[in-house]
Amino acid sequence: MKNKILWLLLLSNVTWAQNKSLHPEAYLKIVETFHPMARQAQIGIKKSDAQILQARGAFDPILRHYITSKTLDGTNYYQYNAPELSIPTWYGIEVNSGIENLQGNRLDPSQTTGQTSYIGIQVPLAKNLLMDKRRAALQQAKLMNQMAFAEQRVVLNQLFLDAMEAYWHWLKCFQVLKITGQNLEAAKRRVDFVKRSVELGDRPAVDTLEASTQFMYMENQNLAKTLDYENATLQLSAFLWQENNVPSNLPKEVIPAEVWADYSLFSNFDLSLNSILEKVDAFHPELQAYQFKIAGLTVEKKLKFQSLLPKIDLEYNHLMKEKSSGYSGALLANNYRFGIKFELPLRLSSGRGEYQNAKLKIEEETILLSQKKQQIQIKINSYFNQFQNLKKQIQTQEKAVISYVSLTKAEESKFAQGESSLFLINSREIKALEAAEKLLDLKAYLFKTVYALQASAGLLI
């Protein structure tokens, strides 16, 4: 019942006559809401959100608690209890604080018995000061999230383009079927007229054979176009889904909306070539995906550069003894633990190799970005030229259809007056049918081209 209500809501642009008609905007809404590819693209965004949350975990405060003790032959060697809280910060600095409680009879002389507390800081002075793995992971996760949105637009652009191509093909097949049906009815009326004329002695009997032959030709045409329409309906149904990933078949009573002359469908589309080309760099999702990927590789390059720096880590902890008078004096005068750690690979082979590889990855993706941009511009220009040409062809073909229909009617008038033949009428009628079908092909091609132009520029979504 819920799906049935949804269909009625989405068919809000429906015109009711004897049948229900499916408007392209309502059709696209169904595709966007329920098609598996659209839902998969949304899942990709949710996964990237989860990756950001995972990367933020590297900056979560950490609470540790270490407890250990040792006894042997009745001797209490030691009992050690040490809770600690460490807080990582964005710039690689880590603040920590804790308590140590050490008791026992066999202790290292360098260790302090009883309870002590400390608060301290660890600072990288070279490597990891400007970039480290935690910051790189979070920045890259954010860029991957933006890339996921761009990739979603890529998927939806292609999905909508494929869906609308199926719609325009379905509409064309429906219109062709209507024309062949009308011609079939006209051929049937002509057979009846000729039979009556033969019975009255106004026409030779051979005209009955001529009219019947034309009727059978139109009947076969109608059967062929019926098959085309049924197959087009199946192709359209492939884009219609319900909730819970359940495929849906288009009801037979639903027909295409009459939108051939409704160019208001293009009112939200940019059909200016210069304007479209200007928008490509800023809005095309495929180019944006490349740009985000390059930005992610730039973060990786910054991280790999850290491998070329010496590792110099400074650690300072201020110590406080239980029942002591507290802090007094300079930082390095009393009650402290201080250390500096220095590391430097003498040849830096690994660091130089990783940094060089990171730079080459950026160069490679930059080349691919330039190629993709050129391909997109060529495709846009091609579709725009096709759009302009189709408008002219349609204007010419509309005039041709009017002429062929007029010739057919004129031939029918002459035939009624005994000045023509069924052969000429049939020839005119077939030419008119072919011209009308050609016009429908051009109109469907025009609508497909407009949507393809928008999709090629990344503007369909």
UniProtKB/TrEMBL annotation:
The keyword Translocase does not apply. Residues 355-400 form a coiled coil. The keyword DNA repair does not apply. It comes from the Bacteria. Keywords: Cell outer membrane, Coiled coil, Membrane, Transmembrane, Transmembrane beta strand, Transport. Pfam families: OEP. InterPro entries: OMP_efflux, TolC-like. It is found in: Cell outer membrane. Belongs to the outer membrane factor (OMF) (TC 1.B.17) family. This is TolC family protein.
